[in-house]
Write a structure and sequence with these properties.
- It is a single chain.
- The protein is an alpha/beta fold.
- About 15% of the residues lie in helices and about 25% in strands.
- The chain contains 3 helices and 23 strands.
- The longest helix is centred in the first third of the chain and has 13 residues.
- Bound molecules: GDP-perosamine.
Amino acid sequence: MDAGGRLLLIGGGGHCRSILDCVLSRGLYEKVGIVDFDQAASALGIPVVGTDDDLPHLLNDGWTNAFISVGSVGSTGLRRKLYKMVKQIGFTIPGIIDPTAAVSRDVIIDEGVFIGKGAIVNTGSRIGTCAIINTGAIIEHDCEIGAFAHISPRATLCGQVNVGDDTHVGAGSVVRQGIKIGACSLLGVGSVVVKDIPDSVKAYGNPCRVVE
Ligand code: JB2
């Protein structure tokens, strides 16, 4: 979880700004910097302190925590690549939870997870490595969210839903209790999921159907 010390956010776009707002409102880190090849990516008064090439030096200079702050819609390839890189260099990868999120004490949250403003994660759930639980999403009891999955704003997973690794659940989707959604799938905005969804498909609609 949020660790204290110095924190690097890897990637300085829109998703980073949401994360930054949570980080600054918690005030747990002594110093925060953005790592991006674009110097213009500084935000909310936080500077770009280097590029990916500078990461080993930044670690030596005392920036011990790194968090993957590029987002994903569809492909999680870049997030996975950056995660592997910061892990190999030796950074600590914290979780970041907005102070307005309601997270049960009885959940397991793996490293690199982001839980945004107003999100709810209820008892018995597990959130996998680097998953994104975005603004206002509801993860009801006993759900399992895979590594690098993205549960978009206002999506609602009723109890005992299983979401595979790298899957994207579109904004405002509703997933009935007990449903299993495979890995590497993409569910469109507003999907209403009442049947299991296999791996590696695109699906959307009410009721949600596989389209490719
Ligand atoms: O290899 C990289 C790299 N590639 C792109 N290393 C580093 N350190 N940074 C990289 N970037 C930077 O990520 C770009 O220069 C840019 O500043 C940022 C991506 O910003 P963008 O606003 O395009 O996307 P995002 O990933 O922050 O947000 C997406 O995902 C969110 C979950 C959007 O689709 C959002 O709408 C969505 N909410």
